[in-house]
Amino acid sequence: MFFPNLSPTLERALSEQGYTTPTPVQLSVLEAASGERDLLVSAQTGSGKTVAYGLSMAQLLLVDDKLPQAGPPMGLIIAPTRELAMQVTRELAWLYKFTNARIASCIGGMDARKEARQLQQGCHIVVGTPGRLCDHLRRGRLDLSSLKVVVLDEADEMLDLGFRDELEELLSAIPEQHTTFMFSATLGKDIISLAKRYQNNALRIDVGKNASQHTDIDYQAMMVAPNEVGLAVVNILRYFDSQTTMVFCATRDLVRHMHSALLERGFSSVALSGDLGQAERTRAIESLRLHQARVCVATDVAARGLDLPALGLVIHASLPTNSATLLHRSGRTGRAGRKGVCAILVPANQQRKAERLLAGAKLSAQWGPVPSIQNIQKKDAERLVQLVQEPAPELSDTDTAFDPALVQQLLSRYSPEELARTIVSLYQAQLPVPEDIRPISAASNSFKPVTERKASNSRQRTSYRDHDKQDTDHAPTERDWFSIPVGRKNHADPKWLIPLLCKLGGIKKKDIGTIHIQESSTSFEISQNFSERFNNAVTFVDGNDVTISAINAPNIKKGRERSFKEKSFSEKKPFSGKGFSGKPSSGKPFAGKKGKTPQKTEKKSSRKKHSTP
Q1: Is 143 helix (H, G, I), strand (E, B) or coil?
Q2: Residue 562 pLDDT level (bands cut at 50, 70, 90)
Q3: Do residues 69 and 185 both lie within one domain?
Q4: Which of 195, 249, 403, 449 has the most CB atoms at less than 10 Å from its CB?
């Protein structure tokens, strides 16, 4: 055991949990806390912060390796979310198992009367959320007069959630002589300001500042067409086949749609978002812990506080808003020495944003396409062979699992090939069907050094009106024509038409040829290499009042209509019809009908919902 300054009771608890060597944050905090000094700590999510401050608190609270008789709390831990508060309570319960500790929890959404009884009976440590703690404080149930140490866990998150007033109310009620540990993933101006006000000459510990990337997490950035994000989630789940997976979406609506779509495809999944009651949230988390569900679809509210030991895969179905959120989400996996995978789905039109997020988080990701059907089938074969070679323990250790007579009967009646074929069929029948997804590679320009990239961009930058002329010499001569019922009367302009077509159809600017703007419609060319995929994508886009349809090549007469390469266009505002405002259209995260290719027709096609998570 290499933990410094530990009592035998704590060493015994750590040993039972399999701890042998402290993490960097645990070692740094333990060494610094020995002087009873205030600490301001910044470290990665999942780095062992709970054990770090639990051990540090023990140095201030234990008397002869035990805690004294319970009374008013001596330790207070404030957490931003219910999940994190419950997780901290569980962690401290096993850590203080042999110290006669009484730990009370005061968490929003739980039974306040039961919490009041716990506080009245006496306790050593209180763990709670800001709102519920303030409620007990105002009602005279929470006595902070004997407090020796207070911990602010995920302080940045509490400020982001608007708990500044509650924090100040709690900290103002604490005796002057106490020690404060403040833990935060980031140390922004608000955190520094809070620390200066409520800490006394705090020692700043920035464990992650010069640390290398989390070696237990394999970061993979996967390019995907914007309308195929939901389908990509299916293939990633099938390829990695993790015992437990978290899928992060940006909004509650996307969580509901994604959860529903995964259930329809045969994945045992639960949803976790802010609109659920506490009882529903607790049941969802418990089903994951008991392995009754394997996939949790969640908003960022679940990125804090969840600790699922078997969580081997995190999928970012929606890109996070900032680098800190990327780290918080990803930190749900790769814990306690276990390996994990973080799959970041990058829509083709958001590659630059993804690169900025990774750079801000100081992460290096392996870029590539979403697993294909062939990749998944190969993985399935490997897993089946391994399953046959290494029978599950419950089959080999039970008396009734193996019937020699039945085995001989099957061998005498069927050939080995027939038996193997049946095994494969039965194995595949229980698995969700993978999706056929267009492979998209990351733009090579994104991997150039910044200085080289700027120089390259300055040489290659052209206006939209030069687009057709620029691509003429290198573009494929084989193209298909499409039409959209938006023309001059709607202020049609390539400046906004080209980004719109690329976004809806999952194509790139270079795949678009001539654009011919007429009075009430616009005709445009799409490279035949991508025209079928484009047609499928725009056919299934939901929420638009206009229809993009395949047409025969128009008879363009020079000078009669506005040809894309012949004239420049005014910068008038684009047509503001539904779905064409530049904002993502809402809809289910799974798009397209399996096994069907829509016919090219000028009539309005039936369309399924489109996702822009």
Answers
A1: coil
A2: low
A3: yes
A4: 249
Query: In the predicted model, is pLDDT for residue 182 greater than 90?
Result: yes
C-beta separation of 562 from 596 below 8 A: no
Highest mean pLDDT among 74-83, 410-419, 538-547: 74-83
* Sign for the pseudo-dihedral over CA of 560, 566, 571, 575: positive
Strand order across the beta sheet in which 479-484 lies? 549-551, 479-484, 522-527, 512-517, 562-563
More confident call, 328 vs 155: 155
- Is 278 part of any domain? yes
Tell me: do 411 and 285 sit in the same domain: no
Q: What is the pLDDT of residues 563-585, one digit of tens each?
A: 554 333 333 333 333 333 333 33
Mean pLDDT to the nearest integer, 107-113: 90
What's the DSSP call for residue 556? Answer: P
Burial class (CB in 10 A: 0-12, 13-18, 19+), 90: middle
pLDDT for residue 484 is more than 70: yes
Rg of the chain in Å (alpha carbons): 29
- Residues 387, 504, single domain; the answer is no
d(CA 39, CA 429): 55
**Around 304, how many Cα atoms within 13 Å sit in the side-chain half-sphere?**
22
Within this chain, do residues 182 and 233 fall inside the same structural domain, yes or no?
no
Q: Are residues 334 and 362 in the same domain?
A: yes
Last residue of a domain, one of 148, 181, 206: 206
CB-count exposure of residue 520 (10 Å: 0-12, 13-18, 19+): exposed
Domain around 484: 462-613
Mark whether 95 and 50 lie in a shared domain: yes
* Global confidence as pTM: 0.61
The count of domains in the chain is 4
What local confidence, expressed as pLDDT, does residue 593 receive?
38
Residue 237 sits in the same domain as residue 171: no
The verdict on 78 and 168 lying in the same domain is: yes
